[in-house]
Amino acid sequence: MKTAAVCDTGKVRSSNQDRVFTSDVPIGPLPDLMIVADGMGGHNAGEKASEIAVEAMLAEIRGRAERPEDVGSWLADCAQEANRAVFTASVDNPAWAGMGTTLVAACVIDGWICGINIGDSRMYVIREDGAGGEQLEQISEDHSYVGELVRAGVLTKEEARHHHKKNLITRAVGQEPEVRADIIMERAEGVELILLCSDGLTDMLDDDEILRVLKLPGFDAEEMAENLVKKANDNGGHDNISVVIADLRGDEKQC
Predict the structure, then answer these.
(1) For 74-96, b where at least 16 C-beta lie within 10 A, e where not — what string?
(2) Do residues 225 and 247 touch, judged by C-beta distance below 8 A?
(3) What is the CA radius of gyration of the chain?
(4) What's the Cα-to-Cα distance from 140 to each of 63, 115, 195, rounded to whole Å?
(5) Disulfide-capable partner of 29 in 67, 104, 129, 144 (CB 3.0 to 4.6 Å)?
């Protein structure tokens, strides 16, 4: 498995409040790891929130030697520690009051994609569709106002992309002393690519556009990530854009 990450300020924002991490070599008890965090808050607080969350989660992962029996639940516990770190920092520093961040993370282990999600940053997979093609599937759930409307059948995904409340988050790291992370467990069999991204990508590209970019032939993981960021900027680049890609093609042992 090969991973790559691109974190771009975009064409409108003056600062980058996103934070990414990727490793296709072991980290702590995990054989690989991918993280995207999209911070929110004024006075650079969003930048601090995403930085604190990622560093706190990495510290928890690096601090454990033995692989847990339930990787998904353990990653959720690590996200909880990240939440406490961000919340504590916001309480201790008045300039950072109310800061928060999304957090989506994953690893590929023993034939499974194990991950967690808090907020509206997303995790996708590209897999074979059984008819000689590929399909893009979102395997995380958006914790947002419009996400709830989509699940209720009130809005379509396309309508949600253009809704005036599309950036209203209903769950985030650091907003409360405790937060619940969704645990994602997906079979890696048949999966060609894993994509983690902030909404700076998905606000600028719909799923069909993302799939078209990823299906362009002859590109490795880093080039695919760069192509997605370029396309998002070409479409306006209204926000920071973070993309992490794991390429599982040709990976017989599935990590």
Answers:
(1) bbbebbbbbbbbbbebbeeeeeb
(2) no
(3) 17
(4) 26, 9, 11
(5) 67
Domains of the chain, start order: 2-247 (3.60.40.10)
Token code pair at residue 127: 């897999």
The neighbouring-strand residues paired with 30 are 27
